[in-house]
Amino acid sequence: MKKVFALLMSVLMAAGILSGCGSSGTPASSGSSASVASASQSTQSSDYSSMKIGVLLSGSANDGGWSQMAADAAKAVQEKYGCTVNYSESVPTTDYESTIRGYADAGYNVVVCHGSEFLDAVKAVSSEYPDVTFICTSAQSGQEPNLTGVDFGSYQFGFLVGAACGLATDTGNIGIVCASTDGTAGDWNNGVIDGAKYSKPDGKVITVCTGSWDDALKCKQAVDALAQQGCDVISQNADAAGMGAIQECDALGLMDVGAVSDQSSVGESCFISVVQDSKLGIETAIDDAVQGTLQAGFVNMDATVNVVTLTGYSGKYADKLTDQQKATLQDLWQQAHDGVDLSTLVKK
What we know:
Layout: H1 2-14, H2 33-45, E1 52-56, H3 66-81, E2 84-88, H4 96-105, E3 110-113, H5 119-126, E4 133-137, E5 147-151, H6 154-168, E6 173-178, H7 183-199, E7 204-209, H8 216-228, E8 233-237, H9 242-252, E9 255-260, E10 270-276, H10 278-291, E11 297-300, E12 308-310, H11 323-337
Parallel strand pairs: 1-2, 1-3, 3-4, 4-5, 5-11, 6-7, 6-8, 8-9, 9-10
Antiparallel strand pairs: 10-12
Helix pairs in contact: 1-4, 3-10, 4-5, 6-7, 6-11, 8-9
C-alpha cells in the first residue's frame, strides 16, 4: 500500500495537482558581503518563478520544530521568487527513494531531504537525475555532481555551549542532556567537551543520553542524575524534550545554557543561549540552489553566515559571568564568525 501511495503521489505531482504553500521570510547568502550583493543583483535580473522545489520531511510541516524549519525555509524562498513549493510529510523509511524519484520525475528542480536519515536514499537516487539539485540537511557528506550535504555548525555550536558552561561552573562539573550522540548530535557533544576544556581546563563534562527527542520527563530525570554528580550548570540538545531539563534546573537551582533556540523564556535558570538557526541555513542552501550557485559535496552553514549566534544574558544568573568572561565568550563567537576552526584552540 505504501508503494502504491508513493506512485500515486508521483503521478499527482506530475499532473500539477499538489498545491504550493506560501510563507514570509528573509533569505541570506552563504558567502561574503560581496557575494550577498551579487546574489541580490542576480535576483533582480533573473526570473525563478518557474522553479519547483520539493521537500521531504520525517515529521509534520506544522510540528513547531525540526520539520517545520525546513517547510518554512522553503516557503520563504517561494515568497521571494514566486516559485512552486510542495512537501511530503512523515515520509516512512520504505518510501524514501520512491518519494525522491516522484519529485524528480515530476520535473522538480530542487529536492530537499530534511535529515541525515535520508542521505543513503538520496545518494542512491541523485545520480539518476543529473539536472536536479538535491539537498540533504544535517548530513556530513554530499555527492558529485548534484547532491549537497548541509550541516549547521554542529561542532562550533557545541563548542560555544561548552565554553559558556565552563565559564559559569563553580564545581567544575558540567552536565549535558542529549537525545542522541550519533551523527551531527555527536559532533555537538564533542564540541561541548572541547569548549568546556577551553574555558575550564580542569573541568569535567558528564553526558546523559536519553534516547528521546520528545520525552521531557526523561530529561528531568537526567538533570536529577547530573545534579547528584555535582553538576551545577546544564545544557541540553533534545528538541522539545529539552524543555524538561530547563524546568528541572529551575527546580533545583542549577544554571542552564540554552541550545538551538533562545530558551530564556522556558526558565529563569537559562542565562544565555547559543542559537543554531537551522531554518536560516536551510533557506540559504535552497536559495543558492535556486540561483544555481550551490556546490555539490559538503557545505557547513555556521557562524560565518550567522546561523550560529549568541543571545544576550537574562534570567536569575544573568550576572553570573564577569565582564571579562562575557568578552571571552563573545570573542570566541567572533573568531568562529571570522572563519576560525575552534577545534584548533584546544590541545588534543
